[in-house]
Amino acid sequence: MQRRGALFGMPGGSGNRKMAAGDIGELLVPHMPTIRVPRSGDRVYKNECAFSYDSPNSEGGLYVCMNTFLAFGREHVERHFRKTGQSVYMYLKRHMREKVRGASGGALPKRRNSKIFLDLDTDDDLNSDDFEYEDEAKLVIFPDHYEIALPNIEELPALVTIACDAVLSSKSPYRKQDPDTWENELPVSKYANNLTQLDNGVRIPPSGWKCARCDLRENLWLNLTDGSVLCGKWFFDSSGGNGHALEHYRDLGYPLAVKLGTITPDGADVYSFQEEEPVLDPHLAKHLAHFGIDMLHMHGTENGLQDNDSKPWISEWEVIQETGTKLKPMYGPGYTGLKNLGNSCYLSSVMQAIFSIPEFQRAYVGNLPRIFDYSPLDPTQDFNTQMTKLGHGLLSGQYSKPPMKSELIEQVMKEEPKPQQNGISPRMFKAFVSRSHPEFSSNRQQDAQEFFLHLVNLVERNRIGSENPSDVFRFLVEERIQCCQTRKVRYTERVDYLMQLPVAMEAATNKDELIAYELTRREAEANRRPLPELVRAKIPFSACLQAFSEPENVDDFWSSALQAKSAGVKTSRFASFPEYLVVQIKKFTFGLDWVPKKFDVSIDMPDLLDINHLRARGLQPGEEELPDISPPVVIPDDSKDRLMNQLIDPSDIDESSVMQLAEMGFPLEACRKAVYFTGNMGAEVAFNWIIVHMEEPDFAEPLTMPGYGGAASAGASAGLDNQPPEETVALITSMGFHRNQALQALRATNSNLERALDWIFSHPEFEEDSDFVIEMENNANANIISEAKPEGPRVKDGSGMYELFAFISHMGTSTMSGHYVCHIKKEGRWVIYNDHKVCASERPPKDLGYMYFYRRIPS
Prior knowledge:
Subcellular location: Cytoplasm
Number of helices: 25
Largest sheet: 8 strands, mixed
Number of strands: 26
Oligomer: single chain
GO molecular function, one term: protein-folding chaperone binding
Shape: globular
Active site: 345 (nucleophile), 819 (proton acceptor)
Strand content: 15-25%
Protein name: Ubiquitin carboxyl-terminal hydrolase
Mean pLDDT: 79
């Protein structure tokens, strides 16, 4: 135990005995086969524990396995040793201390430290002039906790020395590994150092920009040589324009331009026309100052985030972030912030709201020991492990401790804040949940609503046994479509996870003010004067709710009663009410130029919400149903052969394309049909199929084989004997379920894999009855079982009375830029979660939210 005491920092430990070179070699010989040198493609985690947010800066340091290169904090390294038998770990510790002060009070010159951890990417403020640090590394051999100090070139075997050097000099695992994950490092432009700037007196205003050649007001670029403001084209950021910035370069040869609206204290989007790629400009602040732009004081300094139109949006930023109000910091369990990784606030806001819900707390943090103990060998690649890690980090209070009283006094005396624990970094979580996703894996800003649906999808696919916390969001929507000519109706149901409310702009209560503001704004822009103070449209919530419930026209509706296209109207109602209702305000739309735009409106969202009047009623007396006839499939003769060649076996459907579409909010069965009928040609082609067919009555119905020759007969034959396909049975049993369970579930759901899994999880009371199953398999009339009504999706229906407990707000002009902030009501008071800062809210801006979270009030 003495050796263990020495390792864990106990004074007086005598275990660090000096060993001769031969002793060290003999000690390592049994473990040499397990020590590896990192190869290209290996991810070396030396910054963060796989199960917690411990790092080399933590009190217990960090242990890196010399075989798997996974890192573990003091609490978790023993678990990894017991599970894998790996004995050799590299212990990393960074020691921080205050600098010694000189006689005049200034800090003495910083002495050179033996900085061992090359490329140690930590999140703490190590650039403070008041602190210095020194790094420590050593090999630790479990279970006896022998220690070997590093570097130790003379005594260590050559292989071990090479492996240690490679680990210490390895790059961050979150940097670009392959083309599908992280964005490339931008090169420095060769024109940046000696860029010519014309002294022509051009000064760029903070807003009101437009292209000098076509008056376009979107996707504008400032040429850094002459100050011309011109529109871009379909390049670099996929925004539209007429290409006048490129024409300007071809005419005059001025190479660099910066995109207006992306300038923050941290940088901006810079493009080099000569080099034909996005670049870095190390002298960007100086180049912008030439045209009167103070880069260090652009709006968003506090967060280092984007803000496209700084002047008109100042009030929105200030109101939502409660700027100007002295906010009291909050500490302890449930009050831990999340550091911004660069446009990751959409993820942070959603996760703060998610882990304020008891069902998610119980499912992950409540099952922490079991989830961690049964995690796979690489826990960094396991969804449930990373969800549990994040939930524990947010809820434990371990990473949100108030400063000591002595530290507060010292800060007051020095009038300088001392570096404190500023929340946790969701870097490992983001890397996992966003992998293979083209948008979330980038460093660009994203839509919080899209990420919420993406997360729900991941929770559904990685459920823990029969427990699925996302059930609290799921509800059924009843859609009633009526043929306007015959007055006949059709009722269908679909699953949804959030309620999307339209913005009823026509119901604004301050129309006169809005008209006056718009006239003044246009006049100011025309005369290049400062814009007037923004006037925000005030929309009654009741008007938005009314707009949601009103009938809407169905384009290209095919009436089965008429056997032809006709006019149709659709209304939507709740067939069930969820336990937690998520309401999204549809603030974002597209302009005529397909550039995303945002409605900057104020909606009086209620604290108590009653939507019981939106309960679906089903087929009413006197209503006549439309015949259950599918529209004919019309295929041009010259396309039939091509279509037949594209049709694929349903078991070969590209599931990655299916999930991309499902994450957009479309029904899963519709997504499968879209990918199937477009021949696995990708999500984009399938998306176009959905747009064309989404109003069809059987849009969300399960995929059935089209009636071409043998395909139809095969499908009919399968339906007669109701014998599930053996490959589907094998797929379910490979997940750990009994064969009997798989057979019964597939028979009850007409061999639909997704619904069969739902059936299994909704029947935890199922007991294996071999006699019953054998009888079922041998029964020639087993098709009778298929007549039983399949189990529908699990919902937690109840009252439609809700109370508001959280909301997410967005600042900026579109979901592709700006900043997200979350407000949550805890212990009877509102709390603002603004990245790593968590404070008591003084004026929660409930009228400016984007997503609202309501919990059901028990009836």
